[in-house]
Amino acid sequence: MAKDNKALTPMMKQFYSLKAKHPEALMLFRCGDFYETYGEDAVEAARVLGITLTKRNNGAQDPTDMAGFPHHALDTYLPKLIRAGKRVAICDQLEDPKKKREAIKGKKGLSEMDKMVKRGITELVTPGVAMGDNVLNYKENNFLAAVQFGKASCGVAFLDISTGEFLTAEGTFDYAEKLLGNFSPKEVLYDRTKKKEFDRYFGSRFVTFELDDWVFTEQTARQKLLKHFGTKNLKGFGVEHLHNGIIASGAIMQYLEQTQHTQIGHITSLARIEEEKYVRLDKFTIRSLELLGTMQDDGSSLLDVIDRTVTPMGGRMLRRWVVFPLKNVQAITDRQDIVEYFFKQPDFRDCVNEQLHRVGDLERIISKVAVGRVSPREVVQLQRALEAVGPIKLACLQTDNDVLKRVGEQLNLCESLKDRIAHEIQADPPLLVNKGNVIADGYNEELDELRSISRNGKDYLLKIQQEETERTGISSLKVGYNNVFGYYLEVRNTYKDQVPAEWVRKQTLAQAERYITQELKEYEEKILGADEKILALEARLFNELIVYMQDFIPQIQINANLLARLDCLLSFAKTAEEHAYVRPVVDDSDVLDIRQGRHPVIETQLPLGERYVPNDVLLDTSHQQIMMITGPNMAGKSALLRQTALIVLLAQIGGFVPAERARVGLVDKIFTRVGASDNISLGESTFMVEMTEAANILNNVSDKSLVLFDELGRGTSTYDGISIAWAIVEYLHEHVRANARTLFATHYHELNEMEKNFSRIRNYNVSVKEVDGKVIFLRKLEKGGSEHSFGIHVAEIAGMPKSIVKRANVILKELENDNAGVGTVGRPDARKIEESREGMQLNFFQLDDPVLSQIRDEISGLDIDNLTPMEALNKLNDIKKIINP
């Protein structure tokens, strides 16, 4: 609130009183044809939106900051604010200013506030609670999440208000963190008294909002949920025993009420996330396998390659499938059967594909029906979607596939709704109801009569124009209309002397005069009265239709889910046909047998004419549990590891795979330890990140898991790295619980020795060929370990200066001659390397300078292995001060 409330103008008093209801939100205050922001809101809006920051006199001594934009640009600017993580309170005018002026005209004793147009907050839009198409990504869910911290477990809930999906789960904090990573909520709610716990377990990567602690009580939460669903308990949803999950779910319902989202009839159930049904993928795996996004701006993710869905809801479902692979053989087989049926029955595939193109976003349209924000055009789109259901239902019922027949049986034609929309709504209505011409002719008698008056009245106006033109001889005379004067006769100045005396002049323009007549005013009242009644009646009839449509929400939500599922499986078939994928055998064995497997993403990015080099991978827990893979950088080790994981994942989401053939024994968890980009910026060293992720794998691995290690141990000294890598591989081999199928890519050739001592370890290398001193990468996996890294060759390919490449070769030969390479207990003979230098600059540590000696001591005392980037920068600054005190 402003400091001197008495000095404020009435409008600013109104602004501050409304702002006080949601002080944390940026308020868009409707003022005439503009949305305006004031004070700190204006500064922030100007920064985010790139609009001009100016001043407004608010009645106080100092003008307040102001920034605004035309009201019709809301759809342009609101998404920018939401995507910037802002909460936006939309304050609209709740009455017509013109009618307000007429209503108070002549009244005495009214205060300045009484004379103000009434305003109120009509919507609070936040990143997690958004319904507008301009804010939402059409192929992504927009989840709001809530977290409840219990004593020994954590509850988490997710709601997408745009689709009605409402889910909850309970488990360890690690499990909750994994779910938050998989669902990628746009906003997370938590108890404001638990901020330390939230930051400790989940960090700062989410947009969050704190709620009062009373919201996070089981009694409050249960009451909210039972009241909404109209049930006596939550047993029917299968969540009765999830006490923390119920609290998190109730917090979401409370938040919807606080943000004025109370029309939520499309939220028809609360489902438990059944952890036991899905493969565990942690955030490191999702990131390193690039399942949903890439680390490079111009790269492609797995989802980019396999997403051939034609409906937004199909795209959203596929995105979910990718991060929730199945662990049930029958469920996977059911999906595969439908994909194969699409392959074998092209007529069926074409029929479904054609009809799906007509469906649109059925899921979000029916959600808009529930909240009363559906447009006339979207209602017509809903009708077209229902028309597409019929041919798909018939085609599914006529198949010999049991799963497809069940789909056909569950699809609901909603005949009465479809027919009513077709009968009531124009075939091509406007976007907004208040534009008129929404309701079809012949549907409502009263409406037809009013339209007749309006149309005939306008014809009569044209008749007046013609009669007055003939009577006065003014050939340029025309009838016009504006909001101020209503209908008028406009005469150019050259003819104004011919104007009859009974005409009343109302407006003078530069080139013309405008007049009214008694006859004209009488017909204006008839016409405008009819038009106002038409708009009011159309709005009422349209709202009645929406209420009728709300009875069909459950059936249409089922339709949307079934059509999205067909869309996903059809997408698998399209991808398989385009890229020559095959149906894998998925069973409960411990065998992973991939023949001529390919990386699904890399093969689509190769230059035209270049063929991806396929490779075989065979893993089981009896004979070849661990494949130790050596070879130089750029040879293809990392690609091989990732393609193996992606093939397993594709198989377990029910898709076909890029291989000649494949057998996938069910995997319960996929772990990857590749790269170290995460957390380094937060002050953790490369080695600490490596060890944290490796510890996570070893603490959660099982004998049904798939584990990928790529260059473990690079962040520390050679001997430490070898020792840790050896110990980890040994642990995976020797511990029954950790007997996971493992691919271990490494530079440490010493690890090849493990094959001699451990029965289920086999050495492999990604082959290279050296011709005339040059290295050719063959990218073929072969049996046996590699003894060379070819690192200097890689440096040369990367464009390293020739002098450095030459020098490196000299040092390498010295090391090899002295047997001082990696894996021996000896150390390089620094003196011999020094003597071999030609044309190189003097050794920094040989210079006889006290300042440089001090710098040398500073550097020598550093623990490089455990130095964080921030500590390194601080130390560099200290050294700089030694040089320039």
TrEMBL record:
<dbReference type="InterPro" id="IPR007696">
    <property type="entry name" value="DNA_mismatch_repair_MutS_core"/>
</dbReference>
<dbReference type="Pfam" id="PF01624">
    <property type="entry name" value="MutS_I"/>
</dbReference>
<dbReference type="InterPro" id="IPR005748">
    <property type="entry name" value="DNA_mismatch_repair_MutS"/>
</dbReference>
<dbReference type="GO" id="GO:0006298">
    <property type="term" value="P:mismatch repair"/>
</dbReference>
<dbReference type="InterPro" id="IPR017261">
    <property type="entry name" value="DNA_mismatch_repair_MutS/MSH"/>
</dbReference>
<keyword id="KW-0227">DNA damage</keyword>
<dbReference type="InterPro" id="IPR016151">
    <property type="entry name" value="DNA_mismatch_repair_MutS_N"/>
</dbReference>
<keyword id="KW-0238">DNA-binding</keyword>
<comment type="similarity">
    <text>Belongs to the DNA mismatch repair MutS family.</text>
</comment>
<keyword id="KW-0547">Nucleotide-binding</keyword>
<dbReference type="GO" id="GO:0003684">
    <property type="term" value="F:damaged DNA binding"/>
</dbReference>
<dbReference type="GO" id="GO:0005829">
    <property type="term" value="C:cytosol"/>
</dbReference>
<dbReference type="Pfam" id="PF05192">
    <property type="entry name" value="MutS_III"/>
</dbReference>
<keyword id="KW-0234">DNA repair</keyword>
<dbReference type="GO" id="GO:0005524">
    <property type="term" value="F:ATP binding"/>
</dbReference>
<dbReference type="GO" id="GO:0030983">
    <property type="term" value="F:mismatched DNA binding"/>
</dbReference>
<dbReference type="Pfam" id="PF05188">
    <property type="entry name" value="MutS_II"/>
</dbReference>
<feature type="binding site">
    <location>
        <begin position="631"/>
        <end position="638"/>
    </location>
    <ligand>
        <name>ATP</name>
    </ligand>
</feature>
<keyword id="KW-0067">ATP-binding</keyword>
<dbReference type="InterPro" id="IPR036187">
    <property type="entry name" value="DNA_mismatch_repair_MutS_sf"/>
</dbReference>
<feature type="domain" description="DNA mismatch repair proteins mutS family">
    <location>
        <begin position="705"/>
        <end position="721"/>
    </location>
</feature>
<dbReference type="InterPro" id="IPR007860">
    <property type="entry name" value="DNA_mmatch_repair_MutS_con_dom"/>
</dbReference>
<protein>
    <recommendedName>
        <fullName>DNA mismatch repair protein MutS</fullName>
    </recommendedName>
</protein>
<dbReference type="Pfam" id="PF00488">
    <property type="entry name" value="MutS_V"/>
</dbReference>
<dbReference type="GO" id="GO:0140664">
    <property type="term" value="F:ATP-dependent DNA damage sensor activity"/>
</dbReference>
<dbReference type="InterPro" id="IPR045076">
    <property type="entry name" value="MutS"/>
</dbReference>
<dbReference type="InterPro" id="IPR036678">
    <property type="entry name" value="MutS_con_dom_sf"/>
</dbReference>
<dbReference type="InterPro" id="IPR000432">
    <property type="entry name" value="DNA_mismatch_repair_MutS_C"/>
</dbReference>
<dbReference type="InterPro" id="IPR027417">
    <property type="entry name" value="P-loop_NTPase"/>
</dbReference>
<dbReference type="Pfam" id="PF05190">
    <property type="entry name" value="MutS_IV"/>
</dbReference>
<dbReference type="InterPro" id="IPR007695">
    <property type="entry name" value="DNA_mismatch_repair_MutS-lik_N"/>
</dbReference>
<dbReference type="InterPro" id="IPR007861">
    <property type="entry name" value="DNA_mismatch_repair_MutS_clamp"/>
</dbReference>
<comment type="function">
    <text>This protein is involved in the repair of mismatches in DNA. It is possible that it carries out the mismatch recognition step. This protein has a weak ATPase activity.</text>
</comment>
